[in-house]
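Mods, move this if it's the wrong board.
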Amino acid sequence: MLSLRKLVMIGAVLVIALMSTLLSARETSIAVVVNPGNSIRSISLAELRNIFLGTQQFWKDGTQIVPIVRAPSARERDVLLRRIVHMSELQFQHYWSKKPGRAPIVVVSNGMQVATVSKEAGGIALVSTGDLHADVKVLRVGGYLPGAGAYPLRSSAAR
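Not the wrong board. Structure tokens:
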């Protein structure tokens, strides 16, 4: 018969294994999507930063870039702030309030992002991989597609 101490240890191991499984299931990749007519296939984090800060305003073919972002507190926006522009929400809002020119289009859902990117020739957005549609093209980021182990745009889905 198992002692109480062994039962507690087995229980602790099971809890840790369960928590690890739940945490990894909550981690999702955030895809960078563009209009399907865009010829670009891959993008770097530095290029994404320039795009979402408005310092790069045109694609190589001369098409104006149209950044589309989620409203504050969305996972995709958190990834944009933490992993791409390295700003807090307040810093990002302040940056765009002082910057002349066209600010990113703000939408409330991934569906609205996908719809806008599919209609705007220069559209680009960050979309949860669970909300991808054939109406947009997924870019490699740093050479990796979402789901790859080294893919740089992951989000904790614990919201």
